[in-house]
Amino acid sequence: MATIKKESFGKLKDGREVELYTLRNTKGTQAQIITYGARLVAWKFRNQDFKLVDVVLGYEDIATYEQDDKYLGAIVGRHANRIAEGKAVVDGKEYQLEQNDGSRKQNHLHGGFHGFDKQLWEAEETHEGLKLTYRSKDGEGGYPGNLTATVIYGLSNDNELSIRYEAVSDKDTVCNLTNHSYFNLDGFDADSVLEQKLQIFSDEFTENDEESLPTGKILPVEGTPMDFREPTAIGARIGEDYDQLVKGKGYDHNWILRDKPAEVEMEPGMFGYDPGCPIDYLEAGLKNAAYAYSEKSGISLTTYTDLPGIQFYSGNYLDKNLPGKQGVRFGLRSGFCLETQYYPNAFQHPEFPQPILKAGEVWKSQTVYVLKLRR
């Protein structure tokens, strides 16, 4: 397991201290997390030239993170993604959540105006990795119940970054947490991810409307630009005159993951699979979600999860608004997200898996991102 180093990352505008934790394994791979938003701010891995490459987008200082509206590296919640008109029905009662998204700011996105990405988490070093805790009060963002959320970041010597979630509430509530990191396998300072290849282990996706809200229709990927069953360059079809791409200005959709455990889904030697990983994906109930690869750097990223869906977002709204690390400004499609999740807008579609956490029960989930060199 990785060693952990603690440093200061500066102070918020209200004077509270933000901490930076660096997890480092025996191969020199580093994952850096700050307590503001429980954000992954750097993930440094050696490429085929043995150069340390930071593959996640981020900012240089806490002042810029406080201005961020793109959720770079953050844990988002209580509900990741969108809810139409911010209306959620829990235990027969409708709750009005904060409305912070949409053409008329009528929808709810990523927990509202003061979601988990904008909160200061408490940190604790454990034998499993870095444990971060946030206590969300009853009524925060419009959600019912006092909810305690914990996230454990762990870095293995096989360059697996595990993100384990737990949450418990004193009332029935909504719970759908994810990590919103933007990846660029050529490094955060590279221009575009359009030539990087992506594979999504899914045969279907949820159709979106003009507000990027699922309509309830589940469509096959076959014969469409949404088909990533085989490794395909992100930019290969992103400009096609296809309804879903036009509405989303690119990819910003939920793919329905095949309900097969990772060990069964792929055989040793197949694309993106290494049977030598120390995490027992079958025992953990994890399945293959996505695989990405850069010809230029030789770096691959594999995603495993126990959640039913994954949002692939191609960075359509990155706008160079804020200076990033080393002054780099992140422009259109300079990073991509792989957000494991329940399907968005599930409250409008009861046939979808529902992101409900019952009072006193413990919600648990795990997502693992793995970096490797493709020889």
Largest sheet: 9 strands, antiparallel
- State the domain count: 1
Ends apart, CA distance between termini: 25 Å
SSE string, helices as H and strands as E: EEEEEHEEEEEEEEEEEEEEEHEHEEEEEE
| CATH architectural group | Distorted Sandwich
Structural class label: mainly beta
What percent of residues adopt helix (DSSP H or I)? under 10%
Mean pLDDT over the residues: 94
The DSSP helix count reads 3
Regions with little confidence, pLDDT below 50 for 5+ residues: 263-278
Please give the order of strands in the largest beta sheet: 11-12-13-14-27-23-22-17-20
Number of strands: 27
Give a structural overview.
With 375 residues, the protein is mainly beta. The protein has one domain: Beta-galactosidase, Chain A, domain 5, CATH 2.70.98. Helices cover 4% and strands 39% of the residues. The chain is built from 3 helices and 27 strands. The protein has helices at residues 62-67, 243-248, 262-265; strands at residues 3-11, 17-24, 30-34, 39-46, 52-54, 75-76, 82-83, 87-90, 93-96, 108-109, 122-126, 129-136, 147-155, 160-169, 173-174, 178-179, 197-200, 202-208, 214-220, 232-233, 252-257, 287-293, 299-305, 309-313, 337-341, 356-357, 362-373. A 9-stranded antiparallel sheet has the order 11-12-13-14-27-23-22-17-20. Strands 1-2-3-4-5 form a 5-stranded antiparallel sheet, with no helix packed on it. A hairpin with a 5-residue loop joins strand 2 and strand 3. The radius of gyration is 19 Å and the shape is globular. The model is unreliable at 263-278 (pLDDT under 50).
